[in-house]
Fold these 3 entries.
Entry 1:
Amino acid sequence: MYDTDKRKLLSALCHGAIFLSTTLVSVGIPIFITFVTDDPIVRENARESINFHINVWVYGFIVGVLVSMTWGVLVPVAGIGFLLHWGLTVLALFYVLSDTEKPFRYPFIFRLV
């Protein structure tokens, strides 16, 4: 049996790390947690968080290129992407803090890890 408070804390740290920044620093937290925990739910949440980081970077790059190519006409698309990014992260945090028996799965992302 795994400690549910520890599971909540580590899972929330994995998903909430993206609020720190969109650089490699924030993805380091779920990577580190993947290596130090033996809890399968926390490990799955960490992997999902890593995949979400990768998706945010890829989609951010694509939207950034499109905004610059259209001289800023597509800035609202960047705003929608930003709201979606933060909204999904908040949803993940609520989920892992309320249900400790299964990991959160982000919709609409590709999974490399």
Note: The helical segments are 4-16, 24-36, 40-69, 75-98.
Entry 2:
Amino acid sequence: MSDKILELILSRRHDTNIRFTDLQALLKRLGFEYRVKGDHFIYYSNDFPEIINIQPDGNKAKAYQVRQIRNIVYKYHLGGVDDAQI
């Protein structure tokens, strides 16, 4: 796993310190598309039934939304995450 943001999210220690733009870039690299409604960025993929709705908190991502994304990464083994890392 060479993705620094993914490593930070999976470490569970930096949920309140993830930049919103970094989280958006990660979701794009994981194959999600998005649409915008107000300040809500709604990410979706034809490969997964989950819809991810995130909003910025200043220039940071909200901690509970980082946790939701971490759970989706684990659930679908995204970004090279395997069972040994869970």
Note: Residues 3 and 79 are 8 Å apart (CA to CA).
Entry 3:
Amino acid sequence: MKAGDPEARLRETLDTLATTVVASPDAYAKARSEWQRRERRRRLVMLVLALVIVVVADVVGLWALNSFSDPVPPTERTRIDVVIQP
């Protein structure tokens, strides 16, 4: 091994670091349960957001239908003449 070989020094450093690391026996289970919890929360937030959008669209549509369905009746009676041409 050369004194200035950075790849060998890096490998040696990483090997030394790897021997000092103690793995937790339930680290994978904890990480997986955390990931599943976040996934459930993300899906729930998306569902609530979609429901809110649909409800708002329905309310706006119903309001528009209701506001334009009954025109304001005229306040005075006006005579309308119908002319039929032969």
Note: The two ends are 114 Å apart (CA to CA).
